[in-house]
Design goal:
Number of strands of chain B: 15
Order of helices and strands of chain A: EEEHEEHEHEEEEEEEHEHEHEHEH
Largest interface: A-B, 88 and 79 residues
Radius of gyration of chain A: 22 Å
CATH architecture of chain B: 3-Layer(aba) Sandwich
Shape of chain B: globular
Strand order of the largest sheet of chain B: 11-10-9-12-8-1-6-7-13
CATH class of chain B: Alpha Beta
Largest sheet of chain A: 9 strands, mixed
Helix content of chain A: 25-40%
Distance between the termini of chain B: 56 Å
Order of helices and strands of chain B: EEEEEHEHEHEHEEEEHEEEH
Oligomer: heterodimer
Strand content of chain A: 25-35%
Largest sheet of chain B: 9 strands, mixed
Radius of gyration of chain B: 21 Å
Strand content of chain B: 25-35%
CATH topology of chain B: Rossmann fold
Chain lengths: 326, 249
């Protein structure tokens, strides 16, 4: 029998969409096995009513409702997850790809002596149990093979599919770890400041991204207007960040973020391989560039050859008109 | 302040990673210090300049023939360079972390350095696992991909970007900190510093113990991204297609 454990990450009491998607994907994996059981773990207070309708399948979710777990603490979280993993005799642990995971999963790999893999799991054939992901700026695809019995998987983000309706049943089991101590345990997250307004580029469903072709920091006003009209986020190429036109948090690509938006509009971006590394999981890619030979057109679904300063205002006006009629 | 910096080398961003008969072709690759490690090293050297009696020691796990990265680190202001010498290139993050933790414990004996800096990930394999694994093996705290570091009276305050926000974290020494882009702007080296670095000695310690790899990287194949791009002539046509065929608006 296979026993899978899924870490459901909460920030400010909200379970992340990426974690819910990871849970649903693990449910799919479990269905491929003759006997597989899926459990989950939530650390800290969270509003679990939001999970109704978005979470599928069967299983038990361990719910450690303790205030000292509300904000991420690496030692508490490592201990909590490794305790449950061992107590439930699990063989695989699953995470969504987030900043918290990047901190927590390597620690658990050492503590549980487990192989840590990231990417898209291979579900059948000889390589089953391995993970595939791009390496070397996204020019090559590698398979990573686990050598330990215990495995930890970081599922790379994807465009979130709507969960199939399911008549499964999920039980929540309260957990009260006795070893939790009151008071500070370093490192302490003193403050967590979430940005208001537009979504993060790593999580946005629509991204309007700009490159050197935007000409200046002021050129990005056009992109901000378009992004805000569509409820999306602004993304940037590396050049733009290095020039100081935009913050690093918006950078898409090898040394920036990987996006999973269903629409990615690349404006004045030539399409260096380092940039393409960040948009491999995007859905529809639209390129707007004055150079018809720009490499971005090789990876785009739709292209407009033209000056962004001419095309974008027209696109904004037409789109506004279109949305009004709709 | 006693500071360790762990570095590695990667193909520079202009290198073409070829692919021949089922294997990566490294012949046209030029290896440089991992860009994230440059931020880590720069931060260490800045702390050294800020605090008297500081010592910056750089550690690098590699075969004995690779010393250029350590020469560069010395030129940038590191005091000492240690090559953790192994017989072949090690690429499993668990093994690398293990070799580093052994080397650090041997080198520093009873008292670990105040800060162990790493880059948040290498730009080639991009696992981003070594810093936190190393901290766990050393039994100390870590904060990953920091973009701001301030030294307070009895602790360090750091910031890091997470999805949709910023975490402000306090942490005590000893600690492993991994550097993200934005932490600083690495300095250029003068010809003089490069010449001086050539004269410094590089300590070589044998990789003490080879743990079996936890993960093997196999079946590396070229990644094909090409799509058939449909050129549209007007903004209205684009909106129609996206709405009608893809339901995005």
């Amino acid at each position: 029998m296979n026993k899978y454990l899924v870490f459901l990450e909460q920030r400010d009491g909200i379970v992340k969409k990426a974690s819910i998607d990871a849970w649903n994907r693990v449910q799919e994996l479990a269905r491929l096995q003759p006997y597989a059981v899926v459990s989950g773990i939530i650390a800290g207070m969270a509003d679990i009513r939001q999970l109704d309708g978005s979470i599928t399948g069967d299983g038990v979710i361990f719910f450690a409702k303790n205030e000292s777990l509300n904000r991420y603490n690496q030692e508490y979280y490592t201990r909590l997850v490794s305790d449950i993993f061992q107590h439930e005799a699990c063989d695989a642990l699953y995470f969504a790809d987030t900043a918290m995971t990047r901190d927590l999963a390597p620690r658990l790999s050492v503590r549980l002596q487990a192989s840590l893999l990231a990417g898209i799991p291979v579900v059948d054939g000889e390589a089953a149990g391995s993970c595939r992901r791009p390496v070397y700026s996204g020019s090559l695809l590698a398979t990573f093979v686990p050598r330990r019995e215990n495995r930890i998987y970081i599922l790379s983000s994807r465009i979130t599919a709507r969960p199939a309706s399911s008549d499964g049943h999920i039980d929540f089991m309260d957990l009260a770890p006795q070893w939790l101590t009151a008071g500070d345990m370093f490192p302490v997250v003193r403050r967590l400041v979430m940005q208001k307004g537009s979504p993060d580029v790593a999580e946005a469903d629509i991204i309007i991204a700009g490159g050197r072709g935007m000409g200046s920091a002021e050129g990005f006003v056009l992109l901000e207007q378009l992004a805000s009209l569509l409820g999306g986020a602004v993304g940037s190429s590396r050049t733009v960040v290095d020039e100081g036109w935009r913050p690093h948090a918006e950078q898409v690509g090898q040394t920036g973020k990987t996006v999973t938006s269903s629409l990615y509009v690349a404006c004045g971006i030539s399409g260096a391989i380092q940039h393409l590394a960040g948009i491999g999981s995007a859905g529809i890619i639209v390129a707007i560039n004055s150079d018809p030979h720009a490499p971005i057109f090789d990876v785009a679904d739709y292209g407009i050859v033209g000056d962004v300063h001419v095309v974008l205002p027209k696109l904004f006006d037409s789109l506004k008109e279109f949305l009004k009629k709709k | 302040m006693n500071i360790a910096v762990c570095v590695c080398q990667v193909p520079d961003t202009a290198s073409v990673i070829g692919y021949n008969d089922g294997a990566i072709d490294y012949s046209r690759v030029h290896e440089v210090m991992n860009p994230y490690d440059e931020y880590a090293l720069e931060e260490a050297v800045r702390l050294k300049e800020q605090f008297d009696d500081s010592l910056v020691t750089v550690f690098f796990v590699a075969p004995e023939s690779s010393k250029e990265v350590l020469r560069k680190a010395l030129a940038k202001g590191a005091d000492k360079a240690v090559l953790v010498s192994c017989s072949a290139v090690v690429s499993d993050p668990y093994q690398i972390a293990h070799l580093l933790s052994q080397a650090l414990t041997d080198w520093y004996q009873a008292v670990l350095p105040d800060i162990v800096f790493c880059g948040k990930q290498s730009t080639d394999i991009q696992s981003a696992q070594v810093p936190a694994m190393l901290a766990e093996m050393l039994g100390i705290a870590s904060v990953n991909s920091i973009s701001v570091l301030n030294v307070e009276e009895s602790f360090l305050s750091v910031e890091r970007q997470i999805e949709g926000g910023t975490e402000y974290i306090d942490v005590q020494c000893p600690v492993v900190l991994s550097a993200d882009k934005g932490l600083n702007t690495p300095r250029n080296t003068s010809v003089r510093a490069v010449m001086d670095a050539r004269k410094k000695t590089i300590d070589i310690v044998p990789a003490s113990y080879h743990h079996e790899p936890f993960v093997l990287m196999t079946d590396v194949v070229p990644l094909e991204r090409k799509k058939q791009c449909c050129m549209v002539s007007s903004e209205n046509e684009l909106i129609q297609i996206l709405s009608r065929d893809h339901n995005v608006f």
